[in-house]
Amino acid sequence: MSETLDCPSTNGTIEGGRWQSFADQVLAGNPLTAEQAAEVLTCPDSELLSLLDAAYRVRRHYFGNQVQLYLLMNAKSGLCPEDCSYCSQSKESEAEIPKYNILNREKLLDGARVAKERDARTYCIVISARGPNEREMKAVETIVPEIKEKYGLHICACLGLLTDEQAQRLKACGVDRVNHNLNTGEEHYDKICTTHTFADRVDTLKAVREAGLEMCSGGIVGMGESNEDLVGMAIELRELGVHSIPVNFLIPIEGVELEVPEHVTPQYCLKTLAMFRLVCPDREIRIAGGRELHLRSLQPLGLYAANSIFVGDYLTTKGQAPDADYAMIKDLGFEIVTSSEASICSH
Fold first, then answer.
1. Residue 212 domain flag
2. pLDDT (0 to 100) of residue 75
3. Is residue 25 part of a domain?
């Protein structure tokens, strides 16, 4: 006697159909609500591929199969007066990391050369600081025009809290984009940092926006936040008009206070990426720090929701070998985009 298997319906009303209805909604120009976004984060593991299929429909609509690569340069390490509990460079950290002031011209220029060689479209100059001092501002103002002339790279600066005047100076020297992460939701912020506020970070993004610079801002998953905190951050980023959203996954570092909660599994990380894609459908979503540790063998699936990654190392932790990233992208049938023809949405 033969056995009959009952298969889930694919008519949009049973398993997986809910996620396709979310894709239909956002592609029609109707934003996901906070309740719907929270539902994405609690998607049953059995429906994960259906969720990623819906996220991929949205990603493909706005970005095709393009993947943009970024390279980070830790231009100033440690020596930070802030007490961010997730950071190996904070004043509270006991992590053994390199500590140095802003790199000289030759090292910053050499980092740009490596970025070009690795097919990165964007070179990110990052310093650890509450905000840049005058010496650091002048170093950036001097090197950026030279990098752009020699290598034609898109430049992102991550310098901490900025004044209106500093943002305008960055725009004037040729910086294309400023990164300043919200890191978490507003309600959770004072649990991870006390030396500045969530509002301080929002004010910096507004200064960046007013200066005519692109905004890059995202967060870190796995800092004890609730699903509602993550959703609140995603919606805040959408409403601010942020262009590029890096999604980091907390990397546990010896000497740093925070530890990753057990629920941050590879499946949960993929649901988080899908949530950001569906909440911010036309924004660049980047799989950032911690992808190798937390997504593990499921890394390729992340690019069905996200459309960019960092290539190489992060600030004080190692990343996957570039050749492994190139192979992953090729195996997916996606293409690396390095020119100004890349799909970047303006808001």
1. yes
2. 93
3. no
Residues in the chain: 347
* Residues placed in the known binding site for [2Fe-2S] cluster: 124, 156, 216, 286
At 139, give phi and psi (nearest 5°): -65, -45
| CA–CA gap between residue 265 and residue 234 (Å, rounded) | 20
Q: Residue 336's beta-bridge partner residues?
A: 67
Residues 6+ apart with CB under 8 A from 336: 66, 67, 68, 69, 119, 326, 329
CB 316 within 8 A of CB 254: no
335-336 and 66-76 beta bridge pairing: parallel
Number of domains in the chain: 1
* Amino acid in the structure at residue 243: H
Q: Does residue 105 belong to any structural domain of this protein?
A: yes
Helix, strand or coil, per DSSP, at residue 216:
strand
Catalytic residues: 80, 84, 87, 124, 156, 216, 286
Per the prediction, the chain carries an average pLDDT of 90
Over the stretch 316-338, which tens digit does the pLDDT of each residue have? 666 788 999 999 999 999 999 98
Binding-site annotation, residues for [4Fe-4S] cluster: 80, 84, 87
For 251, the domain range is 58-336
**Model confidence pTM above 0.85:** yes
Residue 183 lies in a domain: yes
Would you list which residues are annotated within the binding site? 80, 84, 87, 124, 156, 216, 286
C-alpha R_g of the chain = 20
Identify the helix (H) or strand (E) that includes residue 248. Answer: strand 244-249
Identify the bridge partners of residue 286 per DSSP, sorted by sequence position.
246, 308
CATH code assigned at 94: 3.20.20.70
